Request: fold
Amino acid sequence: MKQCAFTIVAKNYIGLGQILGKSLTKHNPQIDFYIFVSDEFSERPNNLPKEVIMAKSVLREISDAQWTDMSFKYDLTEFCTSIKPFCFDYMFSLGYEKAFYFDPDIYIFSSIEAISNALDEHTMTLTPQIAGIHPDYRGEHPEWAMNVNGIFNLGFCGIRNDDLGKRVVKWWKARLRDQAFADRSVGQFTDQKWMDWIPGFLGQQLYVQQSLGMNMAPWNYFERKLSKDTEGRLYVSFRTDDMPQRHDPLVFVHFAGYDYTQLKKGIISRKRIEDLKEYDDLTLINTVYRDAIVTHACVFDSFIEQPYSYATYDNGIPIATFHRRLYHGLNEPPSNPFATGSGTFYKLIKEKGMIIEEKIDHVSRRNLNNLDGKKKALSYFYRTLYRLLGYKRYVMFLKSLYFYCRPEMHSFLIKR
Reply:
């Protein structure tokens, strides 16, 4: 049965995608591998690997106008994930009967035969964020965050090219054209949250991979412990004592949130998930991934400095997330939001004082100076507001904040 695997990257992560591909084909030479690049080169480089596909050139179902719209309103992560079902559809058009998606920061440690076999009898296969039932949950990544982000992690997805699989892809494509934002206020999280619908759609045609060795990742390290047998094979068991013990072969690890540039230097550091506990057994996988990036440093370096094509306006000024969402909130958005000439979206928001040098997208509670002091100041502001408005109006004001927390709802700021 003809099968393939693919990943989606911005062009700076082509090297990371190649490292994934090398790990996949080492253990699964029968599977064809591709790298879809979501953005564009000003000039196509001579060293572009043969497995690279420039997404815009082949995903013709997305018109040029829709491509401009999606690449502007979505940030890098949102845009890369929004084209995922279109990439599945393209793989099906090439005659592949099974297609598997892996995030570029995944590393394959052994055969994915068990994953492939699942699609012999099922239309789709997914991996849950957490595999065990933990009444006394002690993961560093809070449960509410997983409820918001989705029950399944879409760093991996497998779909069979049958009528039901094509219907799922068609449904998914329709949603992600306009609803692939990471927006907690409306229950969206890129392409991933939509997969919570799949068990209801597919029933027994969905195969949930419950092996501890599949999609091991920072958010489930708390429940999964690594070990090595006398022949050097890696296995995963429950780290917690609230589940029946078992030992599953390690298949693939999702190194989400790691600093890959630091890994290339041999330094293991992470940029996401606060207060993540360091477990000694993780060195068994961290060392392998670090060595892979070090070994293929030239591949990694070939593209890592490439800028994201859709990160700036045509004058080089960065596009803030607030700008993207304001644009999305317009009833009649401009045909070319990247333009900066007279009468453009850029000129309009510049007139409103929304073009500033400070990179506010990078400000979060993790790096905000004097966070406690700012909380106290806000508490004082709300206390004063309560005294001015009274109980009834204050409660109504708080309810209105839920509606106005979305940047789209503030498009009135730039309407003439």
Remarks:
- The two ends are 59 Å apart (CA to CA).
- The chain has two domains: 3-303, 314-416.
